[in-house]
Amino acid sequence: MTRPILLGATGRVGQLLARVWPAGAASAHWQYRSGADAGVIAGFPGTAVCWDILGGPAPDLPPDITAMIVLAGVTGDNKVALAQNTTLALTAVRAARAAGIPRVLIASTQAVYGTLAPRVSEGAACAPTTAYGIAKLEMEHALAPYPEVTCLRLGNVAGADTLLRTAAHQAVTLDRFADGTTPRRSYIGPVTLADVLLALSDPALVLPPVLNVASPGVIEMGEVLAAAEVALTYRNAPCTALALLELDVARLMAFVPLAPLDANDLITQARKGGWRSNKA
Fold it and tell me: Is the separation of the CB atoms in 187 and 214 below 8 Å?
């Protein structure tokens, strides 16, 4: 049975996954750093592993690990800090090799594509426009020599995304285009993401170096907030606003069958992961 270790388990996505981890799945190992919130650690549905990834050598990892899932990373726009994404990833991969772990999945981002095209497959040109996207693309390039690594270009993870995190604290203002629509984006719920990560952790699979990860299709941000019963207002979309940004997930679905996006299901999954709106 697949038994992964998740690095960065106390981060936003990691905490969502810990709350929705499938009961029938093998108990995973969940990495945290010394000083992490004790309540978060107590909620891990499996073995907690203390390891400061950049602070010293890896501990002796449990021998039953079949895959390493690297969620640990740096966000924001500080270029010096963002460079640690490459260091973190390389340190994790080397630790996995030393422990004999055959599969490594590393969280990247749809931001590596930039805004050149409204719908992007893994073969599309990458032209990131943010410091975060640039740093993650540099990380991907550094990982290219490691055949056991697959970088997961994640779409918006419901509950950890900017839209719903904003909606957890305040009313939201959305761009509205001339046709009455709001921005359409690729999303994935934490329950679905947990299933995807478990499926891709199977070391028997032959995975490509990069995979887009989202549920198929796109959904309007206005629909997401309506399903969450969140107060929102609109503004006329500026000419620079992107009406559509979609991840083509055909390659992913060759490994994991996925249902199309549904706003109500997305919010249900986010709530299972612990997300609450500002009115909840």
Answer: yes
Per the structure block, which two tokens stand in for 152?
A: 């997961």
Please say if the pLDDT value at position 278 is more than 80: no
The DSSP 8-state label assigned to residue 56 in this structure reads S
Tokens of 35: 């000083």
Measured distance CA(210)–CA(149) in Å, rounded: 8
Q: Output the furthest CA–CA distance in the chain (Å, rounded).
A: 58
Q: Which of 65, 121, 107, 110 is nearest to 197 (CA)?
A: 107
156-176 pLDDT tens trace: 999 999 999 999 988 899 999
Domain-wise residue ranges, the chain: 4-157+186-214+245-258
SS3 percent helix, strand, coil of the chain, rounded to 5, is 30, 20, 45
| 187-188 and 119-120 beta bridge pairing | unpaired
Are 259 and 266 spatial neighbours (Cβ–Cβ below 8 Å)? Answer: no
Q: What is the mean pLDDT of the chain?
A: 95
DSSP β-ladder status, 156-157 and 219-220: unpaired
Amino acid at 3: R
Q: Which residue is listed with tokens 């709001």?
A: 182
- What's the CATH architecture for 4-157+186-214+245-258? 3-Layer(aba) Sandwich (3.40)
Asked if 168 and 275 count as a contact pair (C-beta separation under 8 A), the reply is yes
The answer to whether 120 and 113 are in contact (CB under 8 A) is yes
| Residue 35, Cβ density class (10 Å: 0-12 exposed, 13-18 middle, ≥19 buried) | exposed
